[in-house]
Amino acid sequence: MVLSAEDKIVLLRLIAGVSYGFLVYLLGLLRIVSLKDLNTFAWTGAAILYAVTIFLTYRFYKPSKAFNLYLRGLLTYYASWLLTSYVLNEIYSIM
């Protein structure tokens, strides 16, 4: 199966989002960042990491359209990190 450049961009942002969601969950669980500051830290870090994915997308895939560079996979990225941290939190609270 061969992935198109657009699919690779979405996959890159999915992996970045899941990884970041796991990191945010661990930071909250281990109290590395206080729970009071975790929300601000998480949203600011998410924006910074998304900017890094823009750079990586340009470096690896050289998209010809600005949409592919800046917006392709945006919802996937944010949804994956939010859902990852939420689901891990819910699983931990059940145990």
Automatic annotation (TrEMBL):
<keyword id="KW-0812">Transmembrane</keyword>
<protein>
    <submittedName>
        <fullName>Uncharacterized protein</fullName>
    </submittedName>
</protein>
<feature type="transmembrane region" description="Helical">
    <location>
        <begin position="70"/>
        <end position="88"/>
    </location>
</feature>
<feature type="transmembrane region" description="Helical">
    <location>
        <begin position="12"/>
        <end position="34"/>
    </location>
</feature>
<keyword id="KW-1133">Transmembrane helix</keyword>
<feature type="transmembrane region" description="Helical">
    <location>
        <begin position="40"/>
        <end position="58"/>
    </location>
</feature>
<keyword id="KW-0472">Membrane</keyword>
